[in-house]
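Consortium newsletter contribution from the modelling node. Members have asked for a concrete example of what our holo predictions look like. Here is one, prepared for the zinc ion complex that several groups have been discussing at recent meetings.
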Amino acid sequence: MKISVRNPQLLPVMLLVLVITSCNPGNPEKDVIQLSWETNQTVTYQEAIHKYEKLDNTFETARLLEQGTTDAGKPFHLFVISRDKDFQPNSIHKKNKRVILVNNGVHPGEPCGIDASLQFANDILLNKDGMGRYLENTVICIVPVYSVGGALKRTPYIRSNQNSPEERGRRGNRRNLDLNRDYSKQDSQNAQSLASIFQIWQPDVFLDTHTTNGSDHQHTITLIPVQPSTLPTVLEGFLREKMLPALYQGMKETPYEMIPYVMFNNRNPENGIISYLQSPRVSTGYAQMFQVLGFMTENHVYKPYPDRVRSVYHFITKLSEFTSTHGEEISRLRHKAQQNIRRKQTYTLDYKLDTSRSRPLHFMGYRQGTITSKLTGLQYKGYDHSKPFEDTIPFYSHYNPVSQVKAPDYYIIPQAWRHVIHRMKINGALMHRLNKDTLLKVQSYYITNHDHLKSSYQGRYYHNKVEVSKQQEELSFYKGDYVVPVNQIRNEYIVQMLEPEGKDSFFRWAFFDPCLERRDWNHPGVTFETNAKRYLETHPELKEQYLQKKQQDPGFARDHMAQLEYIFNHSQWSKSIIGRYPVARLEQGDNLKHLW
Ligand SMILES: [Zn+2]
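And here is the predicted structure:
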């Protein structure tokens, strides 16, 4: 069924017809759990967990698991729907089943996914409209509420631009972190628990549900997929040519025609929409590093809450249907991508939009105009809801690499950087440890230029500019230091996080800042005079240069400190390790394997 919403006033009537005639989320007579999203209310954190417990108690094919903890001290819950009643990830993978992971409440002020997932779990477990068939070869995992701390700080007085649902949670979690900026640096316990889930459950498909208050238009639901250009070629083609068209088409058959997340080209709809380029700090960027087909739904915040819930409900349904129908292909392509990535040598750290490639996109927006405020009586510029329009506009969704790096055979991380090691481990990077102290010829990066944000961002002083130079040198490493081979299915994560110029690397997020600081103060003082004199005697070339400079530069010849500084700056005393990035790159280390 194709519905084109030309007149938004007709939307409630049309929805009523569709609710009766198509897949029906929320049928109170049969439902195991009762939800109130149709009356503009979302569940509290405690209610969400109780309702999943009830589903767990009712159905043998569902289980509410505790998989780690959160910053609020509450458990990290995972609700698993598995038709075989098998809740062991290893065994599920052996049975050649796909895993879909749905994450909700990353921003608890955007709870449509929390309610939609509960409704979906209820409905698929009841096999409404035959939905249970999606479970034949697919296991569905749902995170009820990711930011437990944010959900607990619930109030009507948050997100003042939003009037639904009646109460909602806050964006910051218990540590006031924005969890959709914490996927790569993982300062929150929530992110670390999710990283473990990613490794244990190894989802094939990942969905993170959100709501946006960006530009205004008629669409209730928009989509941010992993930017296809950033995926391995085999997955790029599948996502771009098959999966995304099927999902958009699938949503067209519901009352909620979905479009890509709306980022207008030069802030004007007529110039078209630009595909969102994720970086690893956000959910889709994190998924990309593990070759997972990742999606973010962004519901439009100005639409009625029941519509937002229904639209994401439909999307979860379509995603499950597609994954189930194309299960073998998804497994085969992901396996191929992971095999290829073991041998991948060149990695892209940044991309630029290709403005020469676009496709036509059906867009339903509102004209901009002058609006008279009902509150102040004054006029302002904005989207005029009395002037809807439909148009075909360009959609730009190809990106080209602009910054690439060749990975070494191995990275070596001194064990001192334990916060980095810890994150590498929970993200599945396989590492060896040196079995003795040793001297190794490595390539070092020196941070030659860097800048950081003026104020704290997500609890850290993020480096918005990083420039490096490379140097071959012989350095000491100690027994227990970590050797990371770049020949594994976690390569993308390893390179993106360890290359200092990576957009969300550990260096960018200030994990390695001590390497930028001077420790041993070597500035030439009075005692240096004796040392400098002796140094010149053993370094006749420098002595010659120094004497020449004295002759040619009268100011220099009269300045005692300038002369000491000159000798110091040209001596070995001035050689420092300031700015040496601690993670070394090792090439051709295969003949050194006896060291680990
Ligand atoms: Zn959000």
